[in-house]
Design brief:
By secondary structure, the chain is of the alpha/beta class. It has two domains: 1-39, no CATH class; 40-257, Alpha/Beta hydrolase fold, catalytic domain (Rossmann fold). 35% of the residues lie in helices and 22% in strands. The chain has helices at 6-19, 83-94, 107-112, 119-133, 151-160, 200-212, 234-250, 252-257, and strands at 41-51, 54-63, 68-73, 97-102, 144-149, 167-173, 191-196, 217-222. It has an eight-stranded mixed sheet with strand order 1-2-4-3-5-6-7-8, with helices on both faces. Helix 2 packs across helix 7 (234-250) and helix 4 (119-133) packs across helix 5 (151-160). The longest helix is centred in the last third of the chain and has 17 residues, at 234-250. The termini are far apart.
């Protein structure tokens, strides 16, 4: 098991202790100084979501008194275990946002790779999973946002135009929003495009996508960052930008100010 930091270790330990609270449990190997153990979550569960004819594996985390939900769509070659997306999700959770991280493709589909750049397929999967999500306990009534990375950004923006779901915000991290094609002009959810300042190719593609969109769209450039935001402080900046965007668009104030999803 891999931990992001002491806080993440404490949260995961709290989950395991809760699951075995009726048994005698011994914890071995705590790091020097210990870990902060608390239980601020309503749920933190491995789930399987129906998407057409397949079931997709994911992790659904809902904090106490959630103010919104964010569904993650990862890029090609990644998965719901992406340490970068997991870090962003942990920041969102601490801000009161629930998160659903899931694999857009089955294990077999990942091997054959045919669907990795099939944006229509990925968008349909995202819509199906969103429809499944809104029926889960503690979720009805919460506003939904999408966080897309890489090709997942194109799928997220495409899915956000589907009338079967109501998406109130989209964030792209180093993404390919251009892959949404003609649907870019149909997006109504306020969209934040985050790009590294040294990721020149992606910067041009995101500028192209922003020009094609008619909704509220902000392009945020992280100075000195490359495509994966591995530079010191870069990923933290991404997480802070995403948190502030989602809190503003999904939180109670946003719900009072807007009567339609994506209306600005």
């Amino acid at each position: 098991m891999v931990f992001l930091d002491r806080g993440d270790a404490g949260r995961q330990l709290a989950v395991r202790l809760r699951q075995s609270r009726d048994a005698d449990t011994v914890v071995l190997g705590l790091p020097r100084g210990g870990v902060p153990v608390d239980d601020p979550l309503l749920s933190d569960d491995e789930v399987r979501a129906a998407a057409g004819k397949v079931e997709l594996a994911g992790n659904l985390t809902i904090p106490e008194q959630p103010i919104g939900m964010v569904v993650f769509a990862h890029g090609s070659g990644s998965s719901r275990y992406s340490p970068r997306n997991r870090y962003v999700a942990s920041v969102l959770n601490r801000a009161g946002l629930g998160t659903l991280m899931f694999d857009l493709l089955t294990a077999e589909e990942e091997i054959h790779r045919a669907g990795v750049f099939d944006i229509d397929l990925l968008a349909r999967r995202l819509v199906d999973v969103t429809k499944w999500l809104v029926r889960q306990e503690h979720v009805p009534g919460l506003r939904i946002g999408y966080f897309g990375a890489g090709t997942g950004a194109g799928a997220a923006l495409s899915a956000a135009t589907d009338p079967r779901v109501e998406i109130h915000a989209v964030v792209s991290r180093g993404g390919r929003p251009d892959l949404a094609g003609d649907r870019l002009g149909e997006v109504r959810a306020p969209t934040l495009l985050i790009v590294g300042g040294h990721d020149t190719v992606m910067l041009e593609l995101n500028q192209f996508a922003q020009a094609a969109m008619s909704c509220e769209t902000v392009l945020a450039v992280v100075p000195g960052a490359t495509h994966l935001f591995v530079e010191p402080g870069a990923l933290e900046k991404v997480a802070d930008l995403a948190r502030d965007w989602f809190v503003a668009q999904l939180g109670p104030v946003a719900a009072e100010d807007r009567s339609e999803p994506g209306k600005v």
